[in-house]
Amino acid sequence: MSAHPARAYPITWRKPAWIASPVLRWSLILGALLYLFLGLSSLEVNWTRIAQGWERGWRFISAFGSPDFTSRWSDIRTGFIESLTMTVTATVTGVMLSIPFAVGAARNLANRWVYLFCRGFIALSRTLNEIIVAILLVAMFGLGPFAGYLTLTFATIGFMAKLLAEDIEEIDTSQLEALRSTGASFMQWLDFAVLSQVKPRLVGLSLYRLDINFRESSVIGIVGAGGVGATLNTAMDRYEYDSAAAILLIIIAIVFATEYVSSLIRKRLQ
Fold first, then answer.
1. CA 100 → CA 104, 151, 211, distances in Å?
2. Cβ atoms < 10 Å from Cβ of 168
3. Shortest CA distance to 189 belongs to which of 204, 171, 207?
4. What does the angle CA 16 – CA 21 – CA 27 come to, to the nearest 5 degrees?
5. What pTM did the predictor assign?
6. d(CA 210, CA 263)
7. Using CA atoms, how far apart are residues 173 and 195, in angstroms rounded to an integer?
8. What are the b/e assignments for 30-47, b being 16+ CB within 10 Å?
9. Torsion over CA of 39, 42, 48 and 50, rounded to 10 degrees?
10. CA within 20 to 30 Å of 54's CA: 10, 41, 88, 142, which one?
11. Closest CA to 246 of 118, 126, 74, 20
């Protein structure tokens, strides 16, 4: 007969706590709640301003029921032409420039120094928000779509190069080795062994970035980088909510059309 009492096994399963120590777990929870409370209590709330904002917000939402496409149609058309021009040219330029950066940022293709330089440039491009880059470029080159074009191109390079480099690092290396064994040049095995494997991904990402760039072109225009964003900002400053609603409806329609066309193209490529 055993000297130890029989051990009672639990009959229900309970998920183990992420932090085993109850003291540490509750200290972290209470500390987080205290930080949240202090953070919220430090906010200065102007209830009069909020009441006025609700009224203006409702006027803005109501304007979508009767958008005005005619009063500022000339400005709207000019703004959309600038936005579309910036979007297409920046996307094409950015995609073309992103390919060498993606090759240089692929660990399986580039040497250490090229890899570090390209990865550093990509990190810098992805760190800076488009608004910050647009403010800097507007200060350098002045108001207008040229600053917007440079902003979108810079952002496109970082976006495309990062995702494309990750795809290049995962390609099938047997094609690379086969071409190298035949004495093919760098450009030949880059064309036939690398780009041929990532081409569907490259086309899909390019269409996705085209969609992003059009939406971003309407945002950076608010800081003076041209496009329909400048027209939208002017309409909002003048409290012309019906014209602003018309601009936003056109933006939504173009984004939907772009998404539909890009999805068709991606399906065709797959």
1. 6, 19, 22
2. 23
3. 171
4. 115
5. 0.75
6. 12
7. 13
8. eeeeeeeeeeeeeeeeee
9. -20
10. 41
11. 74
CB of 152 closer than 8 Å to CB of 90: yes
Cα-Cα end-to-end distance for the chain: 71
Tokens of 94: 């950015």
- Exposure string over 124-138, b if 16+ CB within 10 A, otherwise e: ebeebebeebbbbbb
pLDDT number for residue 2 = 52
Tokens of 201: 């991904």
Identity of the residue numbered 198: V
d(CA 155, CA 90): 9
C-alpha 60/C-alpha 240 separation (Å) is 9
For residues 159 and 81, give the distance between their C-alpha atoms in angstroms, rounded to a whole number: 24
Q: Long-range contacts made by residues 172-177, C-beta under 8 angstroms, separation at least 24?
A: 172/197, 173/108
Q: For the chain, which residues score pLDDT lower than 70?
A: 1-10, 269-270
Strand (E) or helix (H) holding 15: none
pLDDT at 269: 66
Residue-range domain boundaries for the chain: 76-269
Nearest to 63, CA basis, from 251, 239, 206, 258:
239
